[in-house]
Structures are given as C-alpha cells and as structure tokens.
Amino acid sequence: MGLFSKRKTVFVDADILVIGGGMAGCGATYESRYWGRDKKIVVVEKANIERSGAVAQGLYAINCYMGMQWDENQPEDHVRYARNDLMGLVREDLGYDIARHVDSTVHKFEEWGLPIMKDPETGRYLREGKWQIMIHGESYKPIVAEAARKAATEVYNRIMVTHLLMDKTKANRVAGAVGFNVRTGDFYVFRAKAVIVAAGGASHIFKPRAVGEGMGRTWYAPWSSASAYALPILVGAKMTQMENRIVLTRFKDGYGPVGAYFLHLKTYTENAYGNNYEPTWYENTKELVGDYIDRQPVPTCLRNHAFLEEVKAGRGPIRMVTKEAFQDPHKEQVGWENFLGMTIGQAVVWASQNIDPKEINPELTTSEPYVMGSHATCSGAWASGPEDYAPDEYQWGYNRMMTVEGLFGAGDTIGGTAHKFSSGSFTEGRIAAKAAVNYVNDLGNDQPQVRESEYENLKQVVFQPLETYDVGRNEIVAGTVSPSYLLPIHGLQRLEKIMDEYVGGISAHYTTNEPMLTRGLELLDMLKEDLAYLGAEDLHQLQRSWELQHRVLASECVTHHTMFRKETRWPGYYYRADHPKLDDTDWHCFTLSQYDRESGKWTMDTAPVYHIVD
Ligand SMILES: Cc1cc2nc3c(=O)[nH]c(=O)nc-3n(C[C@H](O)[C@H](O)[C@H](O)COP(=O)(O)OP(=O)(O)OC[C@H]3O[C@@H](n4cnc5c(N)ncnc54)[C@H](O)[C@@H]3O)c2cc1C
Fold it and tell me: Which atom of ligand 1 lies at the shortest distance from residue 375's CA?
C-alpha cells in the first residue's frame, strides 16, 4: 500500500473537461470558449496537443469541405455520399449537422495560417476530389492546437485518462474523470460539470500486418488506443455500429495514402498481369449486395472486396499504375510531396525497396481492421442529434450528448457519422462544445459531485500494475517471463491474435461466423481475467497497461456487435460466412450495445435508420 499513499493527488475543477486534444478536442476547446466566455475549460491529453492524435504528422488534404461559397456542393450532397459509401446506414441528422458547418471551420484554419492550395485558374481551393481540398499541411496540427491553447483555461498534457467519474446523486450523470501523469506519476482527479470525450479511434485491436519491431507501422496512429470507446462504455453509454470496422487499401508496407494518387494524379490499379480486375467481380458482388454495387462512387468496402477476391484468385499483387502519371514532372512532385506532408515513412519504404514509382508500379495492400468514427466507417457512441433536424427518436437531450447525462463526444468517438475526417471532427467538436456550454448553463444549482470513495478506489486500481510488477519481478523465470504477472505487450499480442483469428482479421481473410465469434468472446473473457495481473515496470508501461484495458473493452464491444448483425453489410471490411449477403429486409438498421459494469453483461438492440435527405 506504501506505493499508493506516496502518490500525490492533484484536483482540477472545470466547467467543461475535454478529454483528448486531437482534432475534435481542439475544436471543442475553441468553441467552448466562444460560447462560454466565463467558463473554466480544461483539456487533458495523454501526449502533447502540439503534435498529438491522428494528424500529428500532418496531412496533405482536408477531406471534408463542401465549397458552399462557390456552390460546389451542398450539405445534402454530402449526406447522400456518406450514406452511399456506408451501404445505406448513417445518422443523416448528425452528418448533415457537420456538413452545414464544416466550411466555416476550414475558413478558420486558413485564417490561423494553414496554407491551402489554390486553383490558379479559378482562385478557388484546389480540389483533389469532390470533397477534398489540398493543403500544405505539415503544420496542420500545431496550427489547430494553438487556437485551442489560446481558448483553454488550462491544458494538461501527458495525462492519460483511465476512467470517468459519476455523480454522487444521479447515477447516470457524469461528474469528471481520473488519470495519471505519464511523466511524474501524479494522480489527477478532474471534477467537471460536462465532459467531452474526443480521444480518437482504435488501432492495434486486430493484429497488424507488420509485427515484431515493425508493429508500430499501422495505418491508423498506433497511439489511438480506444479510450474514446472504453471510457463511455464503462459508464454505460450506448454504442452504435461497432461492427463497422474499416479496412484500408494503401501502398504496401508504409500505408501511404492513395487518395491524391487516384483523384489528382489519375493513377489506377491493375492485377499482376496488367488487367483491370474490378469488372471481373461485378456479378459476384451484385449477388452479395444487390444494386449497391451500381452506386456511384462505388462504396469503399466494395472496392476492397474486388481487391481481396482478385488476390484470393491468385492474381496478386495488385499494383498502382504510377509509371504513366510520374512522367509528368508536376504529378511526380505532387506524388512525393503527398507523402512528405503526411506519411514520410512511405517514401522511406520505397527508397529502401528500390521502388521509383516512375519506373515501377508500386504494390498495394489491404490493412488490418481499425475501429473509428470519422473515416469511411462510423463506429462510436450513440449520440443525441441537433434539435432542428434530428427525428424525435434521436433526441433525448443536448446535441452530441451520449446516453449518459453531461457526457458529450466528437470525432472518432461519435458513431453513425462517416466521412467527417479532420475538418469534420474539429467541426463536431465545436458542435458538441456549444451544446455542452448550454448544458452547463442549464444546470443551475444542480451540479454534479464526485464521490471521494470512487476516486480513492480508482487510484488504487490505476496504479495496481506497478505494485503487481514490483512484487512479481522477483519471480522472473526467464527473460521477462514471470508466473505472477502479464506484461502489457504480451496482453496486446494476445488480444490482437484473438481478434485476428476469431473476429475477422487479416489471417482469417476478414471472415468470421457465429461459432468463431462465440469462441472469440470466450477467449476475450479469459484475457480479461488475466488483466487483473497486468504488471507495469514503469509509468510508460502503466500507460500501455491502461491502453490495453481500453482496447480489450472496445474489442469485446466490436465482437458482440459483429455477432449481433446477422448479415454481411460491408463485404471488403468483414464477412459473416454464415450470413454472406446484405439483408436490407432485416438489417437496414443501426446496432446498439450497452455494457453493465456490475454484471459484465452486454445488451444488444437495434435503432431505425431515418432517411431525412431524399
Ligand atoms: C494515416 C491517416 C491519414 C488521414 N488522412 C486524412 C486526410 O488526408 N484528410 C483528412 O481530413 N483527414 C485524414 N485523416 C483523418 C483524421 O486524422 C481524423 O479524422 C481525425 O484526426 C479524428 O479526430 P479525433 O479528434 O477524433 O482523433 P485524434 O485527432 O486522433 O485525437 C485524439 C486525441 O486523444 C488523445 N487521447 C487518446 N486517448 C487518451 C486518453 N486516454 N487520455 C488522454 N488523451 C487521450 C490522443 O493522444 C489524441 O491527441 C487521416 C488519419 C490517418 C490516421
């Protein structure tokens, strides 16, 4: 017990607590200050907001911009696009809400110094595609973070949030969060009137293609550790569409982006024998999903499906034809700059593998699955919609409030709203913040209170892996192996193996079925039992321990959802071999889950999909 009593507890009070200072968190912070001039706005981030989150390395394109000032697109067009890409299932109220505000966000980015490329002929933003505009975005994140820093009352960097705190009197009301400083080891208790979770998506729940010392080389940021899902799940917030994991077609081994190549450089793919393989799989795909294959643009998952089938048929590797485009010096420059601004590693991989895209058409691959809410996928928390646009059934409180009172979310955290990307995530943060300020104002004297016993108990729980290690290290039998603890890396590898083999990862060709999922859940249960024996050598490993805890809970949620939806809605993302076809009669709906912390049981349900836009 000595270990715990020595640890300092720091108390922080906030009107609005933003967890995660990535794109959505920075948007939430900025907007909280706009509507809440007198409010105490606190951001807590496990890294440093200057370079944290999925945009840490920079981006080369903003993927969600309507261009309403030039009448390029209207918000309704974006809803249709996202609905089509997600095979019919999106929260149209939430998507519309983001689309109608996203342009103003992008204009702010430009005002704050983000260089956006211009079309020399029209003077408009240079389009990469219908929704994407091109930026010189190496410093995208620092620019956005500066706005958040100036808006926040306090930013607490290097604090990993592990749990949310609930109100003493109202069981379903949030009252704050706890975490620890990953450098000093101090325990932090944040007491807040409203909490906005903006903690990003989830990589490393499925085994990555690159293993061993290369395991950090995933497409989604390796530090996206599912806190966005685990924190709300643990306090009983409902989740939606958690089965809708995403698989990306990207350049092999570096996961360099292909968007600019397809859209701007007009490159295309071919199989090992130089043939266009997508038409080969048209009839097969139609069998599975009906006329979704005839929609334009062809949904992302279905393009993956053709890729996967072609490789299974033995005609891989699939290559991107770059040799033609790269003869044009302008395109060659854009092709390289695209990586230098956001995925330098791809340029390094090509250099190390003797690939000059002017001479050799580079290989593509499909990634391991990720769970997130902002890309061509929409897993996340079930949130209340905008009051002027959401159907009654989608409104139980303030905009972007989850099913827990006072708990809001944005970006990867919120489900049902695909294709928000960086700009849409920031915008959703702004939307959630405006609602959270209203919520706090409406609280009056009825303010949430934390329970001392709850955070004292959590303090014990949070640091337990250090204690377990300290005691167990004397029993090390060989190398790092001890009979009395499990290291976070070992737990992570076990999790990834279970998810990979049983829940539709790469080694199972993204395929699963009910018996596999049932076994997967049994193995996850056993893993959870062992997590009580996690051992952490230092604070860094303590962070890894809690990231693992969050990943395991999110994985359990993904597995329950995958079991519940008895169809294959998104071939190319995953396949239910026992229900191989899309089934619009029974499953044109959202899936919902709720976790009960006391019993450890999950309750599954469905919610209707309302098509608001024609
Ligand atoms: C490789 C790649 C390419 C992309 N390309 C584009 C593109 O070209 N254009 C585009 O517009 N978008 C692109 N995106 C998408 C964009 O990055 C995301 O949509 C956006 O960053 C999501 O915002 P977020 O705030 O939800 O998550 P993030 O920006 O990832 O922020 C989450 C934050 O939460 C913090 N955090 C996590 N857990 C905790 C915890 N427990 N305690 C405290 N803090 C925590 C993280 O450190 C991080 O700072 C790309 C993403 C990736 C990974």
Answer: 19
